[in-house]
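Input record, target 12 of the design panel.
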C-alpha cells in the first residue's frame, strides 16, 4: 500500500475530490496547512501599506491506495489540481510514502 499526500491550492479541492470520487477513490483525508515553496509567499497592499504574506494557505489531501493504483491516483490529482495545461508554480506537490500496515479501529 502507498500513502499519497498531495499539497494543493484550496480552490482546487472540489475538482480534485470530484475526479477521485468518479474514479472510485472516495476515501480521503483533508487538512488545512500553511506554507510556501518556490513562490516564497506573496506581497499585498492594504490601505496604502505594502506587506508580505510569508505563509500561504494550502490543503493537504491524503489517501492510501494499493501500489498498482498509485500511478492512476497521482495522474488524477495532477491533472485536476494544476492551473492551465502546463500548471504553474504554487499548484502543489505530491508525495508517495510506503505503508507497512493499515489497522482498522
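The sequence produced for target 12 reads:
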Amino acid at each position: 500500500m502507498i500513502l499519497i499526500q498531495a499539497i494543493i491550492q484550496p480552490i482546487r479541492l472540489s475538482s480534485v475530490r470530484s475526479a477521485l470520487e468518479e474514479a472510485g477513490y472516495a476515501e480521503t483525508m483533508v487538512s488545512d496547512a500553511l506554507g510556501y515553496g518556490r513562490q516564497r509567499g506573496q506581497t499585498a497592499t492594504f490601505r496604502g501599506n505594502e506587506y508580505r504574506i510569508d505563509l500561504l494557505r494550502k490543503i493537504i489531501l491524503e489517501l492510501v491506495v494499493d501500489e498498482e493504483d498509485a500511478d492512476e491516483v497521482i495522474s488524477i490529482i495532477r491533472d485536476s489540481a494544476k492551473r492551465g495545461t502546463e500548471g504553474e508554480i504554487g499548484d502543489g506537490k505530491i508525495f508517495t510514502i510506503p505503508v507497512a500496515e493499515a489497522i482498522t479501529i
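The mean pLDDT is 86.
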